[in-house]
C-alpha cells in the first residue's frame, strides 16, 4: 500500500513563499493533485509537450513519487497516453564527463531502448514520450544562449547538461513532455518561461496520511500476528494526536520512514533476519536523503565533487557542532541567536555565503523544527526533529575529529604535508650530505621526526574520544534512567499512564556514546564515505584500543541494570567481536532484574555473548522480573550456554518453555548449575517435561520450582526422577499446593538421594501433623546417617527453624503477586505452629525467642491485611 504525499499546484507568482516550511506555505483549501493531472493538456501550447516542475523540501517524498510514477506507468495504471517514459537521475548525469547524444544517453542507461523510433525526432513522434529528471539541483544548468549552445538533433553529442537545457527549451524534441523534480534552492534555475506548471510536494501535513503510512509499513509483513502491530500503531497515533514533537517532524515522509524503521528494529527484530543496528538505520537514513547513485566516474566527476564539497560534511561542521554543544551542556533546544552563532556567524566569502543560503533553504528545516513547547519570554526555540538525531550528529562530529583544538588541527595539516614530502626530503638529504657539514645535516634529520611527533599528538586526541565515550556511558546522574532502548521507544510512542519520575532537570543523552561506537563499524563508515565523511581505519584502531581499556576499567565497578543494558547495546552497535570478547572477559555476572526485556534486547544479549569463546562462562545471569516469553527464551538460548547460574524468576514462562529448558539441560556442554524458575506458570505438564532432563544432566545442583503450579502429581514425578540424578544439592518446591502424601514421598526420595541437603516445602497444603512428620523424616534414622533439612514452616518440630527469617522475607517480597488470602492462611498456620512450639519449651530464653519470631509473623500478616486482596487466578490456587 502506497500513501501519496500532498501535492499542490502553484501559480508562478506563488513561488515567493516557497522557501519556508511547507507547513506555513500551504494555501487553505488548496486541492491535492496527482502527477497525471499535472500533465493534462494546457491551452496555448499546441504541438509542444508540457514542462512540469515539481519542487519540495528535503524529505518530502520527491524521489518516492518518481519511483511510484514509473512503476504505475509500467503497470498501465497512470499516464497511459505516453508510450515511452524515460527516467534519469540528475546526480548520475552530473557525474558524466564525456559528451553523448540524447539517444546514446538513453541507450547507455536503458539498452533495450537503443535507436528507439520515438526518440528519432521525426515528425511528432516525441509527443508520446515523457522524460523524468529527478534531483535537478545536482546539475549545473545554464540557460544563457552564450553559455549553452543550441541543439535540435537527438544524435548530436553534447554534455548532458546541454541536452537537458535544450529539452527544457523545447529546442530538442519539442513535442516531448518533461517532469523535473528539484529542491527549493534550485527552483529559479529554470526560467519561468520554460515551465508550463509548478507543483509543490508538501509531504504528510495531516495525521490521517501519517497514520495510513504507518499502517501500511508496520502491517506489511504477512504471516505474523497483527495484534501487536495494531496496538503499536494505536500508541503511535495517540502520540501524533497530542501534537507532539514527533507529529511536527512526521510531515516529512522521510521521518515517517525513520520512525517505522526504528519501531521495526525495537519491536520486530528477528534472529533469522540480517543484523541491523540503530546507528546503521540513522546512517542509511542520511544516505537516503543526501546521497545517490553514480552512473559513471572520471576526472571531471572527481573535480566536480571536489569543487562542490560534501553537503553532509557541511552539516556535521554546522549542525553537528550545535548538537555537540547541546549534548555537552545538556540542552535539547536552541534560540534563534544560538542558531545564527553556530551556523552562520563566521561566514565571510561569497562562496561561504552561497553555501549558507543553500543550506538554510534546503537542509536546515530538515534537521531542526520549532519546539512545540514554545519558548516563552525568550522567543521561539528550535529542537532537532527527532531527539536521537541530535545525539547522532554530535557523535559524528566527535568521531570525525571536528572538535579538535587549533593545535591539533595545525599538527594534522603539518604532519600530512611533511609526510607527503617525506621521500623528497630523504632524496634531498642524501644529495646534500655530500656537500654540507655534518652539523647542518643533523637539522635535516629533524624533519623526519615531525610525522611521528604529530602522530603522537593525534593518537592522544583519539584516546580522548574513547575516554569521552566511556565517561558518557557511565555517568552517575544517568544511572537511574531507563535503559536507552526504552528511552528511544518513549520518544516515538510517548509515555502513556503515569509519568516517570524526573530525577534531574538535565536532559539525558545516553544514545550519544552508543552512536559513537556504532559509527566505528565498517558498514557505517562505508556509507559515510559515500556522503563525503571519511573515518580512517587507523583512527578506528586507535579509538578502539583506548576504548577497550576504559570500558574494562569501568566494568570493574558494580553497574546498575540499566547501565549494564546500555553497555550491551554499545557492544552490539560496535559490531567488533574481538573487542566485545575482551571487554566481556572482565564481567563475571550479568544482572538485569526488572529490565523490560524485548525481542531486540534478547537478541542484543545473545549476539554479544556469541562473540565470546565456548570456554567463557558467566557465574550468573539474573533475568528475574523481565517479562520474558517463550519466543524470547528461544532468542536467549545461545546466551544460556555461557551461564552457570540462571535466574528466570517472576516471568511469564509457560509449559511450552519447559521444552526449551529441558533441551538446554540435556546439552552435554550445558554449564548450568543453578536454575531458578520461581513464579512462572509451568504447571504440572511443564514441570514433568523439565524433569525429563534430570537422568542425563550432570551439572544441575540447585533447582527452584517455587510457585510454578507443580501439584501432587508433579511432586511425585519429581520424587521418582530424583533417583536418576546424583548431583542435586538443594530443591525448592514451596507454594505448589502439595499435600502431605506427596510431600512425604518427596522427602523420602531426598533422604535416599546421595547429595540433597535442603528441600523447601513451606506454603503448601500441609497439615500440622504432616509438618511434624516431614521434620521427623528429615532426621537420620541411625547415628551417622545423612540429615535432610526440611523447610515446611518457621518451626522445626518444637524448635525455631534457623531459616525462619528467609522464609518470611520470601513471602513479603512476593506478596503483591501471590494470592494474599492463601498467604494469610499460611501465616496464621505459622502462628499456630509457633504457639504450639512455645508451649513445649521449658526455657524462658527459648520462649522469648518464639515470641520474637511471632512478632515478625504478625507484622507481616498486618502488612498484608492493610490492602484488599487482589483477584485470584487458577494458577495461584
From TrEMBL:
Residues 21-32 have a biased composition (Polar residues). Pfam families: LRR_6, NACHT, NLRX1_C. One of its GO terms (molecular function) is ATP binding. It is found in: Cytoplasm. Residues 13-32 are annotated as: Disordered. Gene3D superfamilies: P-loop containing nucleotide triphosphate hydrolases, Ribonuclease Inhibitor. The keyword DNA damage does not apply. One of its GO terms (cellular component) is cytosol. Keywords: ATP-binding, Cytoplasm, Nucleotide-binding, Repeat. Residues 50-183 form the NACHT domain. Belongs to the NLRP family. This is NLR family member X1. It comes from Liparis tanakae (Tanaka's snailfish). The gene is Nlrx1.
Amino acid at each position: 500500500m502506497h500513501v501519496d504525499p500532498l501535492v499542490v499546484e502553484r501559480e508562478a507568482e506563488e513561488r515567493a513563499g516557497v522557501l519556508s516550511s511547507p507547513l506555513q506555505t500551504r494555501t487553505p483549501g488548496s486541492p491535492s493533485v496527482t502527477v497525471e493531472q499535472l500533465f493534462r493538456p494546457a491551452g496555448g501550447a499546441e504541438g509542444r509537450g508540457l514542462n512540469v516542475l515539481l519542487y519540495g523540501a528535503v524529505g518530502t517524498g520527491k524521489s518516492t513519487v518518481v519511483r511510484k510514477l514509473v512503476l504505475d506507468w509500467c503497470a498501465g495504471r497512470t499516464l497511459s497516453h505516453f508510450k515511452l517514459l524515460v527516467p534519469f537521475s540528475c546526480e548520475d548525469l552530473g557525474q558524466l564527463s564525456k559528451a553523448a547524444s540524447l539517444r546514446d544517453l538513453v541507450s547507455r542507461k536503458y539498452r533495450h531502448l537503443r535507436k528507439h523510433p520515438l526518440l528519432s525526432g521525426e515528425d511528432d513522434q516525441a509527443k508520446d514520450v515523457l522524460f523524468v529528471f529527478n534531483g535537478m539541483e545536482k546539475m549545473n544548468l545554464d540557460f544563457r544562449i552564450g553559455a549553452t549552445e543550441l541543439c535540435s538533433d537527438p544524435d548530436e553529442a553534447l554534455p548532458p547538461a546541454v541536452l537537458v537545457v535544450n529539452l527544457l527549451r523545447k529546442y530538442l524534441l519539442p513535442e516531448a513532455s518533461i517532469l523535473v523534480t528539484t529542491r527549493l534552492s534550485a527552483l529559479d534555475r529554470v526560467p519561468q518561461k520554460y515551465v508550463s506548471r509548478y507543483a509543490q510536494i508538501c509531504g504528510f501535513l495531516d495525521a490521517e496520511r501519517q497514520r495510513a503510512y504507518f499502517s501500511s509499513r508496520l502491517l506489511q509483513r504477512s504471516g505474523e500476528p497483527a495484534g501487536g502491530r495494531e496496538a503499536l500503531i494505536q500508541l503511535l497515533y495517540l502520540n501524533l494526536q497530542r501534537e507532539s514533537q514527533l507529529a511536527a517532524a512526521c510531515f516529512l515522509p522521510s521521518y515517517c520512514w525513520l520512525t517505522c524503521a526504528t519501531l521495526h528494529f525495537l519491536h520486530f527484530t528477528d534472529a533469522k533476519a540480517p543484523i541491523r543496528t540503530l546507528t546503521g538505520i540513522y546512517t542509511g537514513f542520511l544516505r537516503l536523503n543526501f546521497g545517490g547513485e553514480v552512473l559513471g566516474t572520471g576526472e571531471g566527476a572527481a573535480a566536480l565533487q571536489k569543487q562542490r564539497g560534501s553537503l553532509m560534511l557541511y552539516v556535521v561542521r554546522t549542525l553537528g557542532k550545535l548538537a555537540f554543544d547541546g549534548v555537552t551542556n545538556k540542552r535539547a533546544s536552541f534560540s534563534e541567536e544560538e542558531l545564527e552563532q553556530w551556523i552562520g556567524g563566521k561566514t565571510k566569502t561569497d562562496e561561504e555565503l552561497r553555501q549558507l543560503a543553500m543550506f538554510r533553504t534546503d537542509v536546515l528545516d530538515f534537521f531542526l523544527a520549532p519546539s512545540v513547547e514554545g519558548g516563552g519570554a525568550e522567543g521561539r526555540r528550535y529542537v532537532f526533529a527527532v531527539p536521537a538525531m541530535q545525539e547522532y550528529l554530535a557523535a559524528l562530529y566527535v568521531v570525525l575529529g571536528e572538535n579538535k583544538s587549533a593545535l591539533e588541527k595545525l599538527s594534522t595539516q603539518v604532519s600530512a604535508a611533511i609526510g607527503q614530502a617525506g621521500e623528497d626530503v630523504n632524496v634531498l638529504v642524501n644529495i646534500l650530505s655530500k656537500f654540507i657539514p655534518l652539523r647542518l645535516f643533523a637539522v635535516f634529520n629533524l624533519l623526519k621526526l615531525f610525522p611521528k611527533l604529530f602522530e603522537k599528538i593525534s593518537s592522544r586526541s583519539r584516546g580522548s574520544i574513547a575516554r569521552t565515550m566511556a565517561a558518557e556511558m557511565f555517568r552517575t546522574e544517568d544511572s537511574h534512567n531507563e535503559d536507552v532502548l526504552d528511552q528511544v521507544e518513549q520518544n516515538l510512542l510517548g509515555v502513556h499512564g503515569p509519568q516517570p519520575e524526573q530525577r534531574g532537570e538535565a536532559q539525558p543523552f545516553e544514545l550519544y556514546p552508543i552512536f559513537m561506537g556504532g559509527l566505528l563499524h565498517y558498514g557505517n563508515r562505508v556509507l559515510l564515505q559515500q556522503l563525503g565523511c571519511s573515518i580512517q581505519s587507523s583512527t578506528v584502531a586507535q579509538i578502539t584500543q583506548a576504548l577497550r581499556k576504559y570500558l574494562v576499567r569501568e566494568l570493574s565497578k558494580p553497574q546498575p541494570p540499566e547501565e549494564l543494558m546500555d553497555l550491551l547495546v554499545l557492544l552490539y552497535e560496535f559490531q567488533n567481536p574481538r573487542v566485545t570478547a575482551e571487554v566481556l572477559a572482565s564481567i563475571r555476572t550479568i544482572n538485569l532484574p526488572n529490565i523490560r526485556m524485548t525481542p531486540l534486547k534478547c537478541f542484543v544479549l545473545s549476539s554479544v555473548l556469541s562473540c565470546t569463546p565456548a570456554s567463557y562462562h558467566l557465574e550468573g545471569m539474573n533475568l528475574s522480573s523481565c517479562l520474558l516469553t517463550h519466543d524470547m527464551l528461544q532468542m536467549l538460548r545461545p546466551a544460556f550456554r555461557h551461564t552457570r547460574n540462571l535466574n528466570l524468576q517472576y516471568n511469564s514462562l509457560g509449559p511450552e518453555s519447559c521444552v526449551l529448558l529441558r533441551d538446554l539441560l540435556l546439552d552435554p556442554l550445558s554449564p548450568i548449575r543453578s536454575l531458578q524458575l520461581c513464579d512462572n506458570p509451568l504447571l504440572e505438564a511443564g514441570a514433568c517435561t523439565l524433569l525429563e532432563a534430570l537422568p542425563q544432566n550432570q551439572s544441575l545442583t540447585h533447582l527452584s520450582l517455587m510457585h510454578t503450579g507443580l501439584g501432587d502429581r508433579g511432586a511425585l514425578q519429581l520424587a521418582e526422577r530424583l533417583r536418576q540424578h546424583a548431583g542435586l544439592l538443594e530443591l525448592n518446591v514451596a507454594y505448589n499446593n502439595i499435600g502431605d502424601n506427596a510431600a512425604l514421598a518427596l522427602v523420602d526420595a531426598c533422604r535416599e538421594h546421595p547429595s540433597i541437603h535442603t528441600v523447601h516445602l513451606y506454603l503448601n497444603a500441609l497439615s500440622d501433623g504432616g509438618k511434624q512428620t516431614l521434620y521427623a523424616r528429615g532426621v537420620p534414622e541411625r547415628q551417622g546417617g545423612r540429615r535432610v533439612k526440611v523447610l515446611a514452616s518457621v518451626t522445626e518440630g518444637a524448635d525455631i527453624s534457623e531459616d525462619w527469617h528467609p522464609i518470611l522475607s520470601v513471602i513479603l517480597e512476593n506478596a503483591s503477586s501471590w494470592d494474599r488470602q492463601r498467604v494469610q492462611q499460611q501465616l496464621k498456620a505459622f502462628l499456630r505452629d509457633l504457639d504450639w512450639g512455645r508451649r513445649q519449651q521449658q526455657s524462658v530464653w527459648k520462649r522469648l525467642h518464639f515470641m520474637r519470631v511471632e512478632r515478625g509473623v504478625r507484622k507481616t500478616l498486618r502488612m498484608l491485611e492493610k490492602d484488599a486482596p487482589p483477584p485470584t487466578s487458577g494458577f495461584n490456587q
